[in-house]
Amino acid sequence: MKYPFWICFFLVLLGGGISFAQTQEPEGGKDLLAHSLEDLLNMPVDVASRVPKSRRTSPGVISTITREEIANSGARDLIDVLRLIPGIEFGVDILGTVGIGFRGNWGHEGKVLLIVDGHEMNELMYSNTEFGNHYFVDQIEQIDVIRGPGSAIYGGFAELAVIRITTRLEAEKENGDASLLSSWSRHGYARQTLQATTGARLGEDVFIGFSGGLGYARRSDQPYTDIYGGTFDMYESSEMKSSNINIRFRWKDLIAKLLYDDYVMESKDGYDALLPASVDNRFRSYNASLSNTWNVNPRFSITPEYKFKAHQPWQLPDIPTANVTRYDPTAYQHLGALKMDWTPLENFHVLLGGEYRHDFAEYGNSADWVFKNGDDDIGFGSFSVFGESNWENSLFDLTTGIRFDWHEEFGSMFAPRVGLTKAWKKFHGKALYSRAFRSPSIEQINFGSNIRREKTDVFEVEVGWTPTAHLFFVANYFDIRIKDPIVYAFDSSTGEDSYLNLGKMGSRGTEFEFRMREKWGSLSLNYSYYHSAYTSTHAYSPPSGGSRYVGFPSHKWTFSGSWELFENLTLHPSIIVISERPAYQTVSAGTGTSEISELDPEAVVNLFIRYRSAFLKGLNIGLGFYDLFNVGHAFVQPYDGYHSPLPGSAREVALKIEYSL
Q1: CB–CB of 349/390 below 8 Å?
Q2: Which residues are within 8 A (CB) of 184 and not within 5 positions of it... i.e. 6 or more apart?
Q3: H/E run at residue 154
Q4: Whose CA is closest to 435, among 400, 474, 477, 487?
Q5: pLDDT averaged over every residue in the chain
Q6: DSSP 8-state symbol, 645
Q7: What pLDDT score does 25 carry?
Q8: Contact at 8 Å (CB) between 552 and 542?
Q9: Which residues pair with 530 in a beta bridge?
Q10: Which terminal residue of the chain has fewer beta carbons within 10 Å of its beta carbon, N or C?
């Protein structure tokens, strides 16, 4: 354990022993598998529209993962959960940082929006999101994913997809709970996470809640070999430490929220060649929001909201071999928004709103870093007006939306969307079009030469069939066209970063999903396929071209299931199979240019056994076996940045203990 014992003891005590609410039936003891799949499909979801709709009629390609599904999977972190969703894979950037890819496209550069309890977690300097022992899955009540654009609703980071995490606090769960996960690999101790949540309603109008977590893990226990042949043991130099504090207070419709997140990665892999010694790469964020809803009448409400965040990403010490002097930035964002909800007719709903954002950044004490304006601080303002309408009629549901965005550096941008959805008897269908945009972030403006916004048009069609209350089939087709993609480049000879717009790119493909849910358990199978399209740049493509992008498999199959072996004892296997992937792994001895080769197909098999209400009501014990065949999935850099594939965790055995009041 890398944290003081008294802090860990306090978290367990807070989550497991203190609750202002009355004791409730522990969720882990409920037979949630008795709910039909039809019931779950009809649960209202509002991630893709202001009006809550079922997954069958929501104007987006939606994936929803519940708390019980996360617990049954035995997920150790968010990567374990998200890899089960069609189209999502992960790659490595630099300095051991793992980012997200979607439908074959590298989304780490601010193309995929991550939201936790309404707070946008993409950091403000580069718009990145960092994964691996980051964010505590046992604090999550539900994950909703828009597998498609969300710019018309959420703005510029929602270009390809939106991942919205709702924690236990946001769902205002009253019972306290705590969990502890410890795992071991072939070398010994691999990870440990500890989290606790408690919440209470004080009368009918007040809710107050708190959660906190601590996590420590090693990225891998395998050796890493850089593109020049240098090697080091990652078990000794790949620590990941995370901690968070989340607070929610509600009085009637007045809501105040605070979220502190701290994530530290130990890295030795560098940009291209190994560093002489490992360094800590720190990402820290402070997030706050305040909102109130006035219900003018039953059909009309007004919600003003203020959000503040301060991000300190990529905090690095001096790295002489990588030509990096101490990097210590802080970025701030102030956001004011006003939203108006109006339901003039029972079947017609309108949302209108506007928001103003001001981004401001400054460097630390190092005089070696200045922005393009010649100073050590810089700021930008942007203004957005947005609207959405939802019309339900006997023929179809029609959702339309538009966002007008003005940025003082890039001018104006329109992001329209149209969605036609229809559910009839056992079938449903969707036809969707969205335009999305991505405004360069602070450092992308700073390191970019005449950098422009990138624009994306996405067409999607989905059809689904629910033959019984316990079976569900769904398939979709997507077409993604990105114009002026913002591309990161690294010069290995000077150590300089740069950003530029290169031509166009995109992908097309299909995704299929089958789900079955019975009283004895559940099954889920999905398949996703993409091929590159509209590509006029080789930034993400192999030099020889072809139908794939670097780092991402064209084919991916996932299987997960739950079986009730005995009363309260369940078995949960999962398998993730991916096809071969292009990857830069070596350099040419003659020219010094990087050379690409294929990584073999792989199948990662996990098994989790869960015993609910074990020995004590509300006490759940789980035993997990991860990567049973020791495949050692690696994260590939999706561009030619002279970084070899970074090994992830291989075989692990984990013990998990959960307790709920």
Answers
A1: yes
A2: 190, 652, 653, 654
A3: helix 151-154
A4: 400
A5: 90
A6: P
A7: 38
A8: no
A9: 509
A10: N
Please give the Cα distance from 331 to 128 (Å, whole number): 13
How is 437-477 classified by DSSP, letter by letter?
EE---HHHHHHBSS---EEEEEEEEEEEE-SSTTEEEEEEE
Place of tokens 């109130």: 292
Q: How far is CA 251 from CA 141, 259, 293, 487, in A?
A: 21, 18, 11, 45
Provide the sign of the torsion angle of the four alpha carbons 56, 58, 61, 65, taken in this order. Answer: negative
| The pLDDT value given to residue 494 | 64
- Give the pTM: 0.93
Q: Are 157 and 183 in contact (CB under 8 A)?
A: no
CA distance 189 to 248: 34
Distance CA(101)–CA(114), nearest Å, equals 13
Q: d(Cα 270, Cα 372) in Å, to the nearest integer?
A: 25
Single out the residue of 49, 101, 36 nearest to residue 507, CA to CA.
Answer: 101
Q: What is the pLDDT of residues 230-253, one digit of tens each?
A: 999 999 999 999 999 999 999 999
Helix (H) or strand (E) holding 6: helix 5-17
Q: Do 626 and 649 form a contact (C-beta atoms < 8 A)?
A: yes
Return all residues near 69 (Cβ < 8 A) that are at least 6 apart.
none
Residue 401's contacts (CB-CB under 8 Å, 6 or more residues apart) are 152, 153, 386, 387, 388, 389, 416, 417
| Whether pLDDT at 20 is above 70 | no
For residue 578, give the H/E element and its range: strand 569-578
Beta bridge mates, 91: 99, 636
Distance CA 16, CA 14 (A): 6
Two tokens, residue 348: 């017609």
Whether the CB-CB separation of 521 and 470 falls below 8 Å is answered with: no
Adjacent-strand bridge partners of 280: 266
Dist CA 294 CA 198 (whole Å): 28
DSSP H helices, 459-553, are none
CA gap 95, 107 in Å, rounded: 17
DSSP E strands: which ranges in 268-329? 279-292, 294-297, 300-315
The answer to whether 439 touches 410, Cβ cutoff 8 Å, is yes
Could you tell me which of 521, 503, 551, 577 has the C-alpha nearest to residue 86?
577
Q: Are 60 and 461 in contact (CB under 8 A)?
A: no
Q: Is 546 helix (H, G, I), strand (E, B) or coil?
A: coil
Distance CA 52, CA 413 (A): 27
Q: How far is residue 226's CA from residue 323's CA, in Å, rounded to a whole number?
A: 18
User: In a 10 Å sphere around its CB, with 0-12 CB exposed, 13-18 middle and 19+ buried, how is residue 365 labelled?
Assistant: exposed
Whether the CA torsion 70, 74, 77, 83 is positive or negative: it is negative
